[in-house]
Design brief:
Largest sheet: none
Membrane topology: Multi-pass membrane protein
Order of helices and strands: HHHHHHH
Pfam families: DctQ
Shape: elongated
Radius of gyration: 19 Å
Family: Belongs to the TRAP transporter small permease family.
InterPro entries: DctQ, TRAP_DctQ
Number of helices: 7
Subcellular location: Cell inner membrane
Length: 155
């Protein structure tokens, strides 16, 4: 399951990166060559950067490539090291539930309820904010997978 999720999320991030590069290239071309800057591409690049950053953090959490300080871990025996990693994963899950899923879900609901739209794209802002609960759910899936399969991840 993890490999298919990695492949799907990685492919989606590559797709978003391709779109943001094309949008920024068009913005530069339209501004300096055509002397008429596109108003849509700046906003599109901003929202894509948000999605890439937050989904990229979820992908990094799944690859265990996130920033960590492992001073304590090195001093523990293997059994306590596993317990520490499980405790850290449980704290990450708690953070994802409270901040990303509940808090992000409330943000999505409020922006949906108010009918907020972006200025240039006329995109409903709840679509932009949907990345918060989505990435929280992805991180939880990765971390539960690490806890349930400690032989693969927690050694």
């Amino acid at each position: 399951m993890k490999k298919s999720l990695d492949k799907m999320l990685g492919g989606f991030l590559v797709f978003l990166m391709t779109i943001i590069v094309l949008a920024v290239l068009w913005q530069v071309f339209s501004r300096y060559v055509m002397q008429s800057p596109s108003s849509v591409t700046e906003e599109l690049a901003r929202y894509l950067l948000i999605w890439i950053g937050i989904l990229g953090a979820a992908y990094a959490a799944g690859q265990q490539a996130h920033l960590s300080i492992n001073l304590l871990e090195e001093k523990l025996n293997p059994q306590n090291r596993k317990r520490l990693k499980i405790a850290i994963n449980l704290l990450i899950i708690f953070f994802c539930i409270t901040v990303l899923i509940i808090g992000g879900g409330n943000l999505v609901y409020v922006s949906y309820d108010l009918g907020q739209r972006s200025a240039a794209l006329e995109l409903p802002l709840y679509v932009v904010y949907m990345v918060l609960p989505l990435s929280g759910l992805l991180i939880i899936i990765y971390k539960v997978n690490e806890i349930l399969n400690p032989q693969k991840y927690l050694v």
